[in-house]
Amino acid sequence: MPTPAYGMLVDVVQKRNGVKCVFSDVEDIDQFSASAIDDILAAFSITIQEAERQGASVKVILMCNPHNPVGKCYDAEVLRAILRFCCERGLHLVVDEIYALSAFGETWSSALSLDEMPTDNLHVLYGISKDWGLNGLRMGFMISYNQHVLTTLKQAVGRFTRFSHLSEDFFISFLSDHSFIDDVYIPTLRQRLIATRTKATKFLVDSKIPYTPSSAGFFLWVDLSSWTDLFPGAESESADLQLARHLVKHGVFLQPNKAFISKKKGCFRFAYSRDEVTFKEGTDRLRRALDELEVADCEL
């Protein structure tokens, strides 16, 4: 799994399925750009070789596109190169595309749109909790051309994870209104995300908080290392977690790097997809929390 990565994927894979995740650190590589393909594949190769030396057998590469927590989309050529890499090595590629319709910047490419499709070793995940805001219906999907995988899933978990008829009927009816979905819902979703992201980036610039520009999702990957540096490092808890606890005391929660298997000091995920009142209250609290640290540092 390339990192940073959505930490809950690790919990689901390891705890529910009893397998081990190994991580390929590509944080200092522009992993979304076709210009970095050689570096990305080299990093994957090194990770696989190291895992094999430790007695593990890597079977799957799991990734998010659009990316969580960075909020960027992979170039189609990068996806194609990774898929070919998997085909050559007998690996499966699983791509979580749960933020697919929330891409509002450069063109987003689904792995299913690649020229190499259909292929038995590519599997795409999707759900309705993000783009559609329908968390309560608990509906997720896997798209695959691999009949063995589909049959195994049906036999292993299908009986225990079926959707309710009410959920199915509602969502099918909802999606059947093509004019509303195409002409109203999706454009409105993207317009609102762009508007709120614009406010978020202005706040970050005004607050002198570095961030990675995004083009999808509900969040930005921000650098709060100027404030984590104000905390003494401790064996029991990193400066990043100390800052996270400080923010919680001020009523604002930002997930730190550890939640995303990131080694980059001071990185946090800043979620901005809120209504105007909530967004302003949250950013005001964040600013007060950071200001308090700066004042305390000046008084020392």
TrEMBL record:
<dbReference type="InterPro" id="IPR015422">
    <property type="entry name" value="PyrdxlP-dep_Trfase_small"/>
</dbReference>
<dbReference type="Pfam" id="PF00155">
    <property type="entry name" value="Aminotran_1_2"/>
</dbReference>
<comment type="similarity">
    <text>Belongs to the class-I pyridoxal-phosphate-dependent aminotransferase family.</text>
</comment>
<dbReference type="GO" id="GO:0008483">
    <property type="term" value="F:transaminase activity"/>
</dbReference>
<dbReference type="InterPro" id="IPR015424">
    <property type="entry name" value="PyrdxlP-dep_Trfase"/>
</dbReference>
<dbReference type="InterPro" id="IPR015421">
    <property type="entry name" value="PyrdxlP-dep_Trfase_major"/>
</dbReference>
<dbReference type="InterPro" id="IPR050478">
    <property type="entry name" value="Ethylene_sulfur-biosynth"/>
</dbReference>
<feature type="domain" description="Aminotransferase class I/classII large">
    <location>
        <begin position="1"/>
        <end position="285"/>
    </location>
</feature>
<dbReference type="InterPro" id="IPR004839">
    <property type="entry name" value="Aminotransferase_I/II_large"/>
</dbReference>
<dbReference type="GO" id="GO:0006520">
    <property type="term" value="P:amino acid metabolic process"/>
</dbReference>
<keyword id="KW-0663">Pyridoxal phosphate</keyword>
<dbReference type="InterPro" id="IPR004838">
    <property type="entry name" value="NHTrfase_class1_PyrdxlP-BS"/>
</dbReference>
<protein>
    <submittedName>
        <fullName>PLP-dependent transferase</fullName>
    </submittedName>
</protein>
<dbReference type="GO" id="GO:0030170">
    <property type="term" value="F:pyridoxal phosphate binding"/>
</dbReference>
<keyword id="KW-0808">Transferase</keyword>
